[in-house]
């Protein structure tokens, strides 16, 4: 048996820049991965089957509707899989996509053939970037990936334990033809310079998501007022939000205070994974 970490994906920016004729949205997003996530355990089996454990196991399907099972069947490589579900569902931090990508990596380590790029993309727009799990500028429908070297970041992640439907968020988006990030991104000497620049960018889904789930505004307000927070924003289509801090110690102190004040929220300190 092997175990593969499935790190949470954080959309530091998410610019919706267009919409294709087939209904897929065109994005320009800066993505990082952190040391908080799910885990996949896998071993070769006669047929693929999935069991789910962990604090968010309840309600997670174990049939072909789960991306983990779909990923294994894409490889055509039967595995017995266990998903340790530690990330909240439908939370805008790529949990299902990260789990699918970890399943693909597990299959490769066990001897499965490589899945083609088109096959990986059919599992979901976020699966290719999660397969690499590196800081990346992601454009198109998730198929144009540009790895980036970014300064180390220390964050607090909060999910108010509210699930937000990504299709519903996109339906509420008033403009689907917004400006992308600059073609040539600047060079950032340190995390402070990067965070200053990041504050000039956007998540175009934040406003429509907050309209669907008012708890998002409460989370952002709490993060912005937390000790040492440099900036706060929603990740992906929500409802998870993040704030950035100068160092890990400050982030952990803020996470402890926020968790104590809001014990019903999911609160985690996190740091970006090294390039």
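Sequence proposed for the structure above (275 residues):
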């Amino acid at each position: 048996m092997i175990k593969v970490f499935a790190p949470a994906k954080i959309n530091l920016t998410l610019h919706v820049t267009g919409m294709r004729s087939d209904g897929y949205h065109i994005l320009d997003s800066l993505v990082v991965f952190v040391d908080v996530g799910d885990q996949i355990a896998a071993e070769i089996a006669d047929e693929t089957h999935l069991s789910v454990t962990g604090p968010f196991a309840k309600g997670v399907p174990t049939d072909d509707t789960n991306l983990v099972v779909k990923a294994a069947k894409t490889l055509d490589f039967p595995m017995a899989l266990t998903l340790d579900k530690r990330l909240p569902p439908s939370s805008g931090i790529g949990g299902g996509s990260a789990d699918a990508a970890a399943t693909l990596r597990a299959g490769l380590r066990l001897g499965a053939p490589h899945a083609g790029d088109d096959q990986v993309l059919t599992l979901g727009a976020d699966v290719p970037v999660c397969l690499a799990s590196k800081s990346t500028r992601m454009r198109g429908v998730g198929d144009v990936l540009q790895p980036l070297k970014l300064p180390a970041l220390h964050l607090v992640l909060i999910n108010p334990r509210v699930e937000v439907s990504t299709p519903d968020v996109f339906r509420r988006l008033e403009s689907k033809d917004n400006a992308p990030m600059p073609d040539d991104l600047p060079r950032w000497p340190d995390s402070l310079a990067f965070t200053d620049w990041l504050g000039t960018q956007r998540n175009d889904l934040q406003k429509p998501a907050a309209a669907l789930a008012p708890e998002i505004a409460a989370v952002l307000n709490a993060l912005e007022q937390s000790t040492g927070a440099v900036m706060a924003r929603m990740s992906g289509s929500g409802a998870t939000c993040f704030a950035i801090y100068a160092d890990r110690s400050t982030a952990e102190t803020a996470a402890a205070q926020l968790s104590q004040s809001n014990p019903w929220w999911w609160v985690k300190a996190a740091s970006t994974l090294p390039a």
